[in-house]
Design the sequence.
C-alpha cells in the first residue's frame, strides 16, 4: 500500500522527450512505477501553483520536463519555468515547498533513456524521503496532532524530527528580523544626530555635490564682431602682409 | 503524409541528431545551433567595423580622381590598403571572409528554422523579412565585388547591365541608376560605394522588423562562441589571403571569365547559363516562392490553426506578468474598463499568439487560459491521478 500511494507527477512539454512508446492511456509510464505524465504544450505553461497543488494532494514528487535550455520551440518557455522554480521570476514556487521533491529535466526528443533513468532514480529518492507531506502540517499547524496521533503513529513520530528544525529556523529568522526592525527606529530616535543620519542613510551623489561647488568660469574675451568687419583696422597683421 | 512533410520530418531528425553531438561536445550553453540567429548578427558587427577601416583608405574612382604622379583609382587604393597599410591585408581578409561566413550562417539559420518548423503562422513576418534581408545581403556582397575594380568587377558590371537591359519598361532606368549615368565612369564607382554602405545600414531597419515581434531576441552569442567565429575568419584570412585580379581596363579586351565565389556570385552563374528573361523569371519566382513558404494556401499544406490564449476578464488584475513573459509580444496591456477595481487589463492579439501557454504559467490568478488545454484541466488531471487508487 505504502509504495503504491507514492506517485510522482510529470508535467511534460509535448515537444521534449518522445515517450509515446512507453506511455499508457492513463498517463502512467511502463518501466517506472508510480510515474504519471501530464502533457502540456510547453513546459512554460506549468504553473508553480500546479506543482504545489500536486504536492499538497499527496504526490511524493513532481518532475518538470522541458526541451533543452536554449532550444524551446516557443523560444523561452523552458527558461521561464526554470527561473520560476529557482525563484527568480515572479509567479515562483513557494519557499515552503520541499525543493527535494521537485525535479526539472531539460531533454531533447530522442533522450528517452535518459528520461527513464533519471525519473526512476527520482521516484526511488522521493519514496525514501522521510515525511510524506511536508507542506500540509505547515499550512495547518495546531489542530491536527491530538486527533491524528492515534491512527498513524509511526509516521507522526518521524515527522517532527525532520520538520521541526527548518520550521524553527524560519521562526527564529522571522523573530530576529522583527527585532532588528524594532530596534532601528529606537536607536534613531535616541541619538538625534543629523550628521550621523546623513552619513548612514542618505548618500549624496558625488556629481550633485560637486555641481554645487563648481567654480564658474568667467569668459574674459572681447565679443566677436558680427559680419565680416573691416579688414584693415584689426591688428595690423593683415596690413603688414599686404605691404610685404 | 505528403512528401513535403516527410522532408521536414527527416530534416528535423537530422538536426536533432546533430544537436545531440554538439551538445555532448560543447554543452547546451555553448551550442552554436542554439544561437543560429545571433551568428550572422555577430558577423554583421565585424563587417561594419572592418568596413569602416577599409573606408578610410578606399578611393571610389575609375581613373585619376586627384591629380598625382601615378594612377590612383579604386584598384590601386585597394592594392595600397593591401600592401602598404599595416594589417591592411588582414582587415581586407576579415571583411571578405566575414561576408562569406555571414551568408553561410544565414543559410544555416534559415534551414534550421525551416526544418524545425519555426517559420509559419505567428512567425511569418520574421520569415518574410528574413528573405528580404538575405537578398539585401547578397546584393551588398555583390557590390563589394564591384568595388575592387579588377577584371572580375568589370565583367560583373557588364553582366548586371545586360541583365537590367533585358528587363522591359524599367530596364533602361535601372541601368541608368546602376551606372549612375550612361557609361562606366567615376560616378559609377561612387554609386557602388553608396549602394554598398547605404544598403548595409538599411539592413538595420530590416533587422528591426525582423526582431520587432520577438520579446528579448537572442542577438549576441556567448563570448566563447564569438571568439571561435572570429578565429575561423582569421584562420582563413591567413591561410588563403585575398588578392585582386588584374586592374580593369575599359579600353582593352573584355575579360573572358572570372574566378567564381559561390556565396555571393551564384546568381551570375545562373545568368551566364540561361537567357536574360529566363533569369529574371527564375529569380523572381524563387524569391516569391520562398517568401510564400509560411502561407499554407500557397502550397496546399494542411496546418492546424493556433488556438490563441484568452483572458478571463473578471479575474485579470492587470499585473503585467503575462505581458512581460510573452515571447511574441502578443499581449497588450490596455486601460481597464471604468467599473474595474484595477488599472490595466491584459488583451491578447490572436494573430501574434503561438498558443504556447507561457502566459498561463506566468499568471498567478488563473486569469489567462488556452482554450484547448485550460489550466483547470491540468489541475483536474493531477487530481484524477492522485485519487486513482
Sequence:
Amino acid at each position: 500500500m505504502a509504495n503504491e500511494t507514492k506517485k510522482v507527477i510529470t508535467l511534460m512539454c509535448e515537444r521534449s522527450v518522445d515517450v509515446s512508446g512507453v506511455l499508457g492511456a492513463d498517463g502512467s509510464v511502463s518501466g517506472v512505477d508510480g510515474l504519471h505524465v501530464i502533457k502540456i504544450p510547453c513546459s512554460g505553461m506549468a504553473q508553480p501553483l500546479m506543482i504545489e497543488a500536486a504536492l499538497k494532494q499527496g504526490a511524493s514528487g513532481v518532475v518538470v520536463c522541458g526541451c533543452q535550455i536554449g532550444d524551446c520551440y516557443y523560444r523561452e518557455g523552458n527558461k521561464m519555468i526554470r527561473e520560476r522554480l529557482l525563484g527568480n521570476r515572479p509567479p515562483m514556487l513557494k519557499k515552503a515547498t520541499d525543493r527535494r521533491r521537485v525535479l526539472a529535466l531539460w531533454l531533447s526528443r530522442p533522450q528517452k533513456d535518459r528520461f527513464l533513468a533519471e525519473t526512476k532514480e527520482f521516484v526511488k529518492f522521493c519514496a525514501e524521503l522521510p515525511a510524506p507531506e511536508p507542506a500540509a502540517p505547515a499550512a495547518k499547524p495546531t489542530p491536527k496532532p491530538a486527533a491524528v496521533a492515534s491512527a498513524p503513529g509511526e509516521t507522526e513520530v518521524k515527522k517532527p524530527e525532520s520538520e521541526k528544525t527548518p520550521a524553527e529556523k524560519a521562526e527564529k529568522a522571522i523573530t530576529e528580523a522583527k527585532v532588528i526592525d524594532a530596534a532601528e527606529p529606537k536607536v534613531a530616535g535616541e541619538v538625534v544626530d543629523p550628521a550621523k543620519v546623513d552619513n548612514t542613510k542618505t548618500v549624496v551623489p558625488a556629481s550633485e555635490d560637486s555641481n554645487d561647488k563648481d567654480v564658474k568660469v568667467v569668459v574674459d574675451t572681447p565679443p566677436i564682431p558680427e559680419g565680416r568687419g573691416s579688414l584693415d583696422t584689426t591688428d595690423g597683421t593683415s596690413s603688414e602682409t599686404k605691404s610685404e | 503524409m505528403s512528401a513535403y512533410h516527410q522532408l521536414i520530418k527527416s530534416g528535423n531528425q537530422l538536426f536533432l541528431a546533430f544537436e545531440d553531438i554538439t551538445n555532448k561536445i560543447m554543452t547546451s550553453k555553448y551550442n552554436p545551433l542554439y544561437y543560429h540567429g545571433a551568428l550572422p548578427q555577430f558577423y554583421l558587427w565585424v563587417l561594419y567595423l572592418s568596413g569602416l577601416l577599409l573606408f578610410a583608405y578606399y578611393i571610389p574612382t575609375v581613373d585619376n580622381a586627384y591629380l598625382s604622379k601615378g594612377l590612383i583609382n579604386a584598384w590601386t587604393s585597394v592594392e595600397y590598403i593591401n600592401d602598404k597599410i599595416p594589417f591592411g591585408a588582414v582587415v581586407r581578409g576579415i571583411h571578405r571572409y566575414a561576408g562569406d561566413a555571414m551568408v553561410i550562417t544565414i543559410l544555416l539559420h534559415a534551414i534550421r528554422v525551416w526544418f524545425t518548423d519555426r517559420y509559419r503562422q505567428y512567425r511569418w513576418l520574421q520569415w518574410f523579412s528574413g528573405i528580404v534581408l538575405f537578398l539585401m545581403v547578397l546584393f551588398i556582397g555583390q557590390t563589394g565585388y564591384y568595388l575592387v575594380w579588377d577584371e572580375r568587377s568589370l565583367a560583373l558590371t557588364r553582366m548586371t547591365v545586360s541583365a537590367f537591359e533585358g528587363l522591359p519598361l524599367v530596364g533602361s532606368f535601372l541601368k541608368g541608376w546602376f551606372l549612375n549615368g550612361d557609361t562606366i565612369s567615376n560616378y559609377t564607382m561612387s554609386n557602388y560605394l553608396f549602394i554598398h554602405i547605404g544598403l548595409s545600414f538599411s539592413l538595420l531597419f530590416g533587422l528591426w522588423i525582423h526582431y520587432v515581434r520577438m520579446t528579448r531576441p537572442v542577438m549576441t552569442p556567448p563570448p566563447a562562441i564569438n571568439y571561435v567565429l572570429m578565429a575561423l575568419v582569421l584562420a582563413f584570412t591567413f591561410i588563403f589571403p585575398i588578392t585582386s585580379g588584374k586592374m580593369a581596363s575599359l579600353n582593352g579586351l573584355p575579360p573572358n571569365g572570372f574566378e567564381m565565389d559561390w556565396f555571393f556570385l551564384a546568381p551570375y552563374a545562373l545568368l551566364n547559363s540561361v537567357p536574360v528573361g529566363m533569369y529574371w523569371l527564375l529569380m523572381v519566382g524563387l524569391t516569391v516562392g520562398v517568401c510564400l513558404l509560411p502561407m499554407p494556401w500557397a502550397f496546399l499544406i494542411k496546418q492546424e490553426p493556433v488556438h490563441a490564449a484568452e483572458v478571463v476578464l473578471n479575474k485579470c488584475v492587470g499585473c503585467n506578468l503575462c505581458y512581460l513573459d510573452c515571447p511574441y509580444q502578443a499581449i497588450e496591456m490596455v486601460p481597464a474598463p471604468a467599473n474595474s477595481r484595477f488599472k490595466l487589463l491584459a488583451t491578447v492579439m490572436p494573430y501574434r499568439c503561438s498558443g504556447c501557454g507561457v502566459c498561463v504559467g506566468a499568471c498567478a490568478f488563473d486569469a489567462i487560459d488556452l482554450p484547448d488545454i485550460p489550466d483547470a484541466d491540468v489541475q483536474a488531471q493531477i487530481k484524477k491521478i492522485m485519487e486513482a487508487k
Summary: DSSP finds ten helices and four strands in chain A. Confidence is low (pLDDT under 50) at residues 133-214, 236-244 of chain A. Chain A touches chain B at residues 4-5, 7, 9, 11, 26-27, 36, 38, 40-42, 44-47, 49-50, 53-54, 57-59, 68-71, 73-77, 80-81, 84, 89-91, 106, 108-111 (CB under 8 Å). The radius of gyration of chain A is 35 Å.
